[in-house]
Design a protein that fits this description.
The chain is an alpha/beta fold and 178 residues long. It has two domains: 98 residues, FAD/NAD(P)-binding domain, CATH 3.50.50.60; 54 residues, no CATH class. Helices cover 20% and strands 19% of the residues. It has a four-stranded parallel β-sheet with strand order 5-2-1-9, with helices on one face. The chain has a three-stranded antiparallel β-sheet with strand order 6-7-8, with no helix packed on it. Strands 3-4 form a two-stranded antiparallel ribbon.
Amino acid sequence: MGKRVIVVGGGIAGMQTALKLSAGGVSALLLERDADLGGKLTGWHKLFPSFTPAHEVLDELRRRLAASDVEVRTRCEVAEVARDGVTLSTGERLEADAVVVATGFTLFDARIKEEYGYGIYDNVYTTVDIERMLNEGRVALKDGTAPRRIAFLHCVGSRDEKVCQHHCSKVCCITGVK
């Protein structure tokens, strides 16, 4: 009998993981809490560094999943994760040989870093705010006019002990499922 892996989280990492497992002959079950797959990618405009529209990447991943042997369950909340499976919020227990947790991330609340003025001054935005504006087709100041220039501050809050952020926002990958 082949291996079965449960992937918790239907964002880009979870979708890619489930597809790779399936391509390697592993039975993959992808569980997503929300009604649709995509996670944070659903709110992004274009991806760096290629500037590919995010919806193109998401559409392709969804198409590949639909054509694969990956079982996908949406509106499926995981209450408990164990080495050999998961328990859903409904109480249902799903067994597996392994579990991959790809539940995404929480964005840093920029209001905590008061010195940058987010939430205090007009026209101070996070990159998520800018992404939303780009998806709506227009970046504008509070008064509705277009900005003359934009400055981006990266890694706000990373490795800042004053706001209890001891880690860097660098992304790490671990590979090698056997």
